[in-house]
Amino acid sequence: MSPEVKPDFLISPEGLRVDGRRPDELRPIELKVGVLKQANGSASIRQGKTYIIAAVYGPRELHPRHLTLNDRAYLRVTYRMATFSVPDRKRPAPSRREKEISMVIANALKPALFLEEYPKAVVDVHIMVIQADGGTRCAAINAASLALADAGIPMRSLVPAVAVGKADGTLLVDLGDEEDKYGQGDVPMAILPQTGEITLLQQDGFFTREELLEAMQMGINSCNYLHELQKDALKRVYVRNPEDGEDTFDDDLEADLGESEIMEDE
What we know:
The protein has 266 residues and is α+β, with helices and mostly antiparallel strands. Helices cover 28% and strands 26% of the residues.
């Protein structure tokens, strides 16, 4: 396989990125809910060329038992990249990076969940990266959040996530693979939109204080937009079309989606 070639530029003289996007523009995003019949909840995300599927199983009995928590459910997240998800075939065994990202995703999701509703149980979240083209940890959070809602796990809010990076001295939202590899750093973040609570904030590379504050605001704005896309994905599954003679989307549920918790029945 031929080696990757660094692009001539990441930001053009016209201020556009390698793929033609503006600095504050997200890649095309497609969210789907209920994509796997065997799981209690599932969702998929296409974000640019990145493609990820998330599945939720549980709440159910926890094995091994020594992991049991008496006051809440144990959230077990498994993030994996398919061997064919990257140009150079990945080893099938879980890597250190995959284990780290699994922990990061779990920590980003926990503040949104009412895990105390299911003491001594486990909620398993399995995430598979089918194709990686940058931004997989944030895309995985977006999909996993929807899968948890689809499984009926009580939630304070959906959890949108995005990375803001820097290339050629310009702040960029939602980095693609080339921007991630050849840029000057990135700031992945996730929030609870109703409260503004930040559940994930990491930094790789150097940012001035002013750049970091601006990057965080750009990330919050993008997360709020992603939150609307997440809600729309749920509505497409659970809303009934009045023209078909069925019930319309419940106003109380819509309020829950936007303000408190998600309690979807399977």
